[in-house]
Amino acid sequence: MNGTQVVEGARRAPARARVRSHDDERRRPWTFWVLATVFVAYVLALYGPMLCIYVLSLQDIRGGLVFPMKGLSLHWFVDLFTQVRTGDVKGGFERSITLALVVTVLTVVGSFLAGLGFRARFRGDGIVFYVMVGSLVAPGLVLGIGIGLLFQYLGIEPHWYTSALGAHLSWTLPFGVLVMFAVLSRFDSAWEEAARDLGASHWQTIRWVVIPVLAPGLVAVALFGFTLSYDEFARTLQTSGSLNTLPLEIWSMTLNVTSPSLYALGTVTTIASFVIIGASLGVIAWLQRRRARRLPAN
């Protein structure tokens, strides 16, 4: 084979590869199409009802709870925050956001301290760990009832900022601790040793070495804490007292509201959730790029 034949074969190789790829697509086994159909059906079943809610929330004043859709406007979004008959949506939203932010801070701090504490073995660490994550096994509604009864037995009136706060922490803290354990398992203790060799104190090592390295994991814990608390219903039902959080307000609206305002509320809460998740992912990406710029080039 001379050089001309080699060059000609190299030129024809991409064309032959495209032909083989096209033939493979036509000869795909029937199992591929079955799995593709099942996946499409799963996606439609999962997101189809949500899309229907979003579409029906954009009707005008003639709109109802079912199709066909009547008109197109933002009337029900305005009605949601201006009409008393739709419930205390504004108050429920404010209470849920405030409670979720407090739970987030406590979850991040508690998970971080627990992760640092469990880096070294101590007597009874297994018992402490299983007690800490045991609340994940208990049904949320049963746990909420227990907390509500305990507050009543102690003569303390349940409120969304006391008993509900404890109920939410029993749900978010175990998740935060498990995430922090996974993050710390990849943490190299040699960085701490290097900082101490350079004269850094224990607090300076945590502030300037441990926290910056673990920052993406801490943001992930914060995202877990916020989202789990923001839409928690079972643990809040018996612990929020006389004032509803947003999930409880949505539940009460399903009993007495028969207008697309309920769909508008679902759309607003979904948008808020996506904004929070997107902001958290953006912060994680920014921290990773910042760390990559600080690393010395090889």
Helix-strand blueprint:
Elements: H1 3-26, H2 30-56, H3 75-82, H4 89-117, H5 125-133, H6 140-153, H7 163-184, H8 190-197, H9 202-230, H10 234-237, H11 246-256, H12 261-294
Helix pairs in contact: 3-12, 4-7, 4-9, 4-11, 6-7, 7-9, 8-9, 9-12
Give your account of this protein's structure:
This protein has 298 residues and is mainly alpha-helical. The protein has a domain at 88-256: MetI-like fold (Orthogonal Bundle). Helix content is 73%, strand content 0%. The chain is built from twelve helices and no strands. It has helices at 3-26, 30-56, 75-82, 89-117, 125-133, 140-153, 163-184, 190-197, 202-230, 234-237, 246-256, 261-294. The radius of gyration is 27 Å and the shape is globular.
Content-based structural category: mainly alpha
Which outline best applies? globular
List SSEs in N-to-C order. HHHHHHHHHHHH
Please state the CA-atom Rg, rounded to the nearest Å: 27 Å
Q: What is the CATH superfamily label of one domain?
A: MetI-like
How helical, in percent, are the residues? over 70%
CATH top level assignment of one domain: Mainly Alpha
Number of helices: 12
Largest sheet data: none
Tally the beta strands: 0
Estimate what percentage of residues fall within beta strands.
Answer: under 5%
Distance between the termini: 44 Å
Can you name the CATH architecture of one domain?
Orthogonal Bundle
> Which stretches are poorly predicted, pLDDT < 50 over at least 5 residues?
none
Integer average pLDDT: 80
CATH topology of one domain: MetI-like fold
